[in-house]
Design a protein that fits this description.
This protein is an alpha/beta fold. It is built from 1 helix and 8 strands, in the order H-E-E-E-E-E-E-E-E. The chain has a single domain, classed as Cupredoxins -  blue copper proteins (Immunoglobulin-like, Sandwich). The strands form 2 sheets. A 4-stranded mixed beta sheet has the order 2-1-4-6, with no helix packed on it. A hairpin with a 7-residue loop joins strand 7 and strand 8. The longest helix is centred in the first third of the chain and has 27 residues.
Length: 111
């Protein structure tokens, strides 16, 4: 009789561990948004935690890119209402610009 109870307890503990793991994964799945409007990134400076996915959405009629100054990431040309996402896994300051309109500049600060 002890054997079935031991197995049941083991299954409960395994399930609770899986739930805990799922919870930590969900907590790490943060996101933040940057809009592109009137030839500007808004916000121009965004501070996020490591593991955050930043999503840019182009709200202009003109095509824009999101291009890292160091080559760490780059989007294709985004048309109106198209998006690009980048997950930041390391701390640092990530400067970026639009390759089609180099005066458009901004930064993501990852802590």
């Amino acid at each position: 009789m002890k054997k079935p109870v031991t197995v049941l307890v083991g299954l409960v503990l395994a399930a609770s561990g899986a739930l805990a793991l799922g919870s930590s994964v969900a907590a790490m799945g943060r996101s933040a948004d940057v809009g592109i409007k009137e030839f500007k990134f808004a916000p121009a400076a965004l501070q996020v935690s490591t593991g955050t996915t930043v999503r840019w959405t182009n709200h202009d009629e003109e095509t824009h890119t999101i291009t890292s100054t160091t080559g760490a990431f780059a989007s294709r040309g985004l048309g109106s209402d198209e998006t690009f996402a980048q997950t930041f896994t390391r701390p640092g300051a990530y400067e970026y610009f639009c390759a089609l309109h180099p005066q458009m500049r901004a930064r993501v600060i990852v802590k």
